[in-house]
Amino acid sequence: MRFIVSTSILLKQLQAISGASSSSTVLPILENFLFEIKDNILTISATDLQTSMVTNLQIEAKEEGRVAMPSKILIETLKTLPDQPVAFSVDINTLAIEISAGDGKYKLSGENADDFPKIPVIDNISTVSIAAPTLLEAINKTIFAVSNDELRPAMSGVLVQLSEQSTTFVATDAHKLVRYRRTDVGAEKPTSLILPKKALSLLKSSLPSDDVTVSIEYNTTNAFFQFGNINLICRLIDERYPDYEAVIPRLNPNKLTVDRNLFLNTLRRVVIFANKTTHQVRLKISGSELHISAEDLDFSNEAHERLSCQFEGEDMEIGFNAKFLVEMLNNLNCEEVVLEMSTPNRAGLLVPAIKADHEEILMLVMPVMLNNI
Length: 373
Description:
Helices cover 17% and strands 43% of the residues. By secondary structure, the protein is an alpha+beta fold.
């Protein structure tokens, strides 16, 4: 088995799918890429059993074949080579691999391709299409709120609710919640999927920034994303997602409108002086003035800042984890935000002051008790 390919083209494809590989001591084969040649098409696969990525490229090859190659040494070698043709020769019997590039020759051992896990094939599928920038925006807006709690597997992914009129993305870790809805994306048949965080992180790093359409095929167990020459297949989280609508407060008579950048930068400064464990800040709203303060009694640290704002409702004081507010404000693209509140012991809702076309975003943050500050 012998083939020739450009170092830069091959490296780009390997780096695009390398995140799906696994450093597994139980299954060392997962540390490899699967190379398959058929009809002058080189197909390369990587998997950790839960998430798989596949790419293909045109090459020059006189024979067909399959072999698993160690991913780490392959990428590290290609990184050091200039952009030039590189020839791979594989002895199918001994699985010895020889790489020839310019004046250099490099030898390494491959693995039996039959030991590489089979990449899932999706049947009984439904399909939805979504523009890459739209999908990327949905991932960016929600992935930061996904839970890392292994005891709550449903919350370790993003819930995607497909309907005929809209698509809703939801993430929560019980302290914060994001609901991001697109009214320009819909599916023929209403359904819900929970996409794992790793698959979404891989999509985030590999989705093109131009207006490419991503085809998403799914069934009850897997989702299959196809864009350009890359395919990503992930196992869905088979759990019941919590009833997130039940925790969103409906009546919020107190509405604080403030400049997003000003609010964000103030919180970044004030939280430096907050308790390093709780990151608690106090918001005291009176008329058109917002007073933000934090203190760390253990080190006698204290910070106070005042901001101009617009406020509808009764004067109030409420405490929040500033780290959560900073994360949320970082993921909103608007000039002004509205913080909707009811009472100091109920969740606050952060929304853009002006709604964008085709999208609706709501971020919920749980309060902290003021007597702990």
